[in-house]
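thought: fold this chain, then report.
action: predict
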Amino acid sequence: MASPNSCPCYPGRPFDQCCGPYLAGEAIPPTAETLMRSRFCAFQRRDADYVRQTWDPVKRPRQLNFDRDQRVWSSLEIVATLGGGEQDERGVVEFKARYELGEDTYLFHEVSRFTRHDGRWFYLDATFPFHGKIAHQGKPLKNAPCPCNSGQKYKKCCGA
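observation:
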């Protein structure tokens, strides 16, 4: 189990040595993946200002409000990255994030595009291969993606 001081994007890594400096404005994420990880932390902490500040100015929403958001973001898995390095101007990060809402667990699978302006990375937009409920009261749903990451539905894989 992760300690209370560990970073949500990397359990076991201290928050103040991982995403903490980015959310505090003390450092700038050097890669698209680092920005994506820090945005995951900001969503978990309901830091709407950081999420807005790291959104591309052309597509940035006027306001974000997490007051009614009851999701509890629980885990992050980086699936793949393309570009997005310290010398790149564009990058793509594919990830899967899980969250709990009441007694249900959801999977949020996203392929995000990032762009860099004046040395800073910004979230541009995304596509969503899957977003839906995968478990109820801790039991996997039959038609949800299998938790073993086989790419099959649970009922055709580990639930068979």
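thought: worth noting. The chain has a mean pLDDT of 91.
final: tokens above.
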